[in-house]
Design brief:
By secondary structure, the chain is of the alpha/beta class. The chain has two domains: 6-12 and 272-400, Beta Barrel (Lyase, Ornithine Decarboxylase, Chain A, domain 1), CATH 2.40.37; 29-258, Alanine racemase (TIM Barrel, Alpha-Beta Barrel). The protein has helices at residues 29-42, 53-57, 61-70, 81-95, 115-120, 130-143, 177-185, 212-226, 373-380, 384-390, and strands at 23-28, 47-48, 50-51, 75-78, 103-106, 123-127, 160-165, 193-199, 232-233, 250-251, 274-279, 282-286, 291-292, 298-299, 304-309, 326-329, 332-337, 345-348, 362-366, 396-400. Helix 3 packs across helix 4 (81-95) and helix 9 (373-380) crosses helix 10. The radius of gyration is 24 Å and the shape is elongated.
């Protein structure tokens, strides 16, 4: 990612105008495209889908979805039906008639009263319970006319499409092993459903040596063998790196697309996608025995310069980064001192050049030559997922062009 200067952010882009925003969030779409290409190659013969739930992990599904569609991604996963509707509209507006080629799966499945939403917007439910299955099967059979024609959202066979989630150890969503075997004993319950995928989800994919990984895969295989044949999907971002035994017919990367490390014990094979800068709004000098911030948790041990930046936990800069976070100013690491508050953080800029710390100067908080998003998460005692999805709406968002993304190689490509 190329270096930027303070003046690069004086112009107004989509979202909060740069002059009004207290921070700048840069989203590198070319890097995101390169990450998708790396994951696609890593998946081998399996299709590479994209998980864009949570507004594409906070980066904007209206930007990310169409980009991936133009790169050839044809299968998307969201969490809520509303996310699916919004994604379909974005694809329709940006990729035109090709949006019809995109299959959008809703991971939370179908609830009573949402059936028409699925049909109207061409969405496919991931069925998590026998009750959801029966609901969708009834709807499907009602759609099929005596001549075999069907309503919107149906496949060419006249049946409505769905994926079936098999719980292999997460105990969150999906049919239990007992439910799956009950369905295997009564396959007529699937009548009217075009079963596109059998899917499951690994609990410990980011720990390659964990015993649950092969245990879940083996249970997945046993349950699949008892059910009507259908393509299979098991791998999330980290599981793609567990090897081809986990790839099946479709892989479902999420957080790796956005630059978070899917292999925490190794170097990150993905390119950095986000960088965050906060603007200094005030610099003041303090000395012993003065303190900084709520609770007087930080006290000066001598003459210090303190810069105040308008980023806080309301912007996704977590309170747990109090006294733990680190910024970068003029190439110098500057620590967060005192508590993170709703709208502000304070950084000790004593070691930075005197002329670098002034109102309007940018302190790098995530990415670039400073802290990676995984490093920030580590300091906050959490994971990159939470940092990514918490990135606030008060930032000035700048999307770097992805038109030259085709053929781009990711850093650490494997």
């Amino acid at each position: 990612m190329s270096a930027r200067t303070d003046t690069d952010y004086t112009r107004s882009f989509a979202g909060v105008p740069g002059a009004q925003a207290g921070a700048v969030l840069e989203i590198d779409l070319a890097a995101l495209a390169a990450n998708y290409q790396v994951l696609s190659r890593r998946a081998g013969t399996a299709e590479c889908a994209a998980v864009v739930k949570g507004d594409a992990y906070g980066l904007g599904a209206d930007q990310v979805g169409p980009l991936l569609a133009r790169l050839g991604c044809r299968t998307f996963f969201v969490a809520h039906v509303g996310e699916g509707i919004a994604l379909r509209q974005s694809l329709r507006q940006t990729v035109g008639q090709d949006h019809d080629r995109a299959e959008i799966y809703v991971l939370h499945g179908i609830l009573p009263g949402t059936e028409e939403d699925f049909l109207a917007h061409g969405l496919i439910p991931v069925l998590n319970t026998l009750e959801q299955l029966d609901l969708w099967a009834r709807k499907s059979r009602a759609q099929i006319s005596p001549t075999g024609a069907s309503g919107a959202g149906a496949s060419g066979t006249g049946a409505l499409a769905a994926a079936l989630h098999l719980d292999t150890g997460m105990n969150r969503l999906g049919l239990s092993a007992d439910d799956a075997m009950a369905l295997a004993a009564a396959p007529a319950r699937l009548a009217g459903i075009d079963l596109r995928f059998l899917i499951s989800h690994l609990a410990c994919a980011d720990q390659p040596g964990h015993a649950m990984n092969p245990e879940q895969r083996q249970l997945f295989d046993r349950l699949r063998a008892a059910l009507p044949p259908a393509p299979a999907s098991l791998a999330n971002s980290s599981a793609i790196f567990l090897g081809s035994d986990y790839h099946y017919d479709l892989v479902r990367p999420g957080v790796a697309l956005y630059g978070v490390n899917p292999t925490p014990a190794q170097a990150n094979p993905m390119r950095e996608v986000v960088r965050l800068w906060g603007k200094i709004i005030q610099v003041r000098e303090i000395d012993t025995p003065q303190c900084v911030g709520y609770g007087a948790t930080h006290r000066a041990t001598g003459p210090r310069r303190i810069a105040t930046v308008p980023v806080g936990y309301a912007d996704g800069y977590l309170r747990s980064l109090s006294g733990q976070g680190m910024g970068r100013l003029a190439g110098i690491s500057v620590p967060v001192v005192g508590r993170v508050s709703m709208d502000l953080i304070t950084l000790d800029v004593t070691e930075a050049p005197l002329d670098a710390a002034h109102p309007g100067a940018l302190v790098e908080l995530i990415g670039g030559g400073g802290e990676t998003i995984d490093a920030v998460a580590g300091r906050a005692g959490t994971i990159g997922y939470e940092i990514m999805t918490a990135l606030g709406r008060r930032y000035h968002r700048r999307y770097l062009d992805a038109t030259a993304a085709a053929g781009t190689e990711a850093v650490g490509d494997v």
